[in-house]
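In this supplementary section we document a worked example of the pipeline. Step one takes a protein sequence of length 269 as its only input; no multiple sequence alignment statistics are reported here. Step two produces a three-dimensional model, which step three serialises into structure tokens for compact storage. The input and output of this example are shown verbatim.
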Amino acid sequence: MRIAILGGGNMGTTYAKAFVRSNIVKTGDLLIIEKHPEKRKSLREEGVADLKEEINESLSTYDILIVAVKPQDFKSLVPDLVKVLKPSQLIISIMAGITISTIQTLLKHDKIVRAMPNTPAQLGFGITAFTVCKDASLDQISIVDTLLETTGKAIFMKDEELLDAVTALSGSGPAYYYYFVKHMIEAGKQMGMEEPVAAMLVKQTMLGAFQIMSNSKDSLDDMIKAVASKGGTTEAALNSFEKSNVGQDIIEALKSAEKRAKELSRESA
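The serialised model returned by step three reads:
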């Protein structure tokens, strides 16, 4: 199998390294097309893949093409892509907001997969939801699943419209956790701690809580109750959250993210 990646940014590079590390593809069968000289120089030093500056006819010799450019940069690349694509090639897009039908129309190409990864993929702890064109075979779905799971976990979604919700939940999700951790650390500072001490307490607590969630069969409500003693400190904090309507605010915030994802989809059409 030969794989070409269009775009040598964070996610494109993440996939390239993951494919080689997982023995999915040999370095000589992996191509990254990256227009920026500085990035090409860095990638060349790492020796992850073959490198080219621009799209050319050699792209037609690859089985899978991963489009990892910014959505706003995609249309400018379409004329060159259309010239070299072959009907047998499978295209995997990780561009936020651009639908399968839009890509099919622009590229005049049927075999399209749309995926939404998140940044923990860089460490092998990502979660990527993906959906496929209606004519995709089970073999193709299996291949895509295998490729995406080199960076963490993958989940197949039958309904493409749900990828906007995926964007809101997991695509943008890491930033929400960083935001909450940031303010927990700030609370520690305001209570008299040095920032490194507060940061260690908060980050390790978050890691430990994740492990409990991952290994327990209890519901989240039960886990909360296990920490929140009647009349205790945890209950005081939770009561403040409830009084300030934090839970509903979180839900509304994620719905705002989903709404913006849908707007981006329409703008890219």
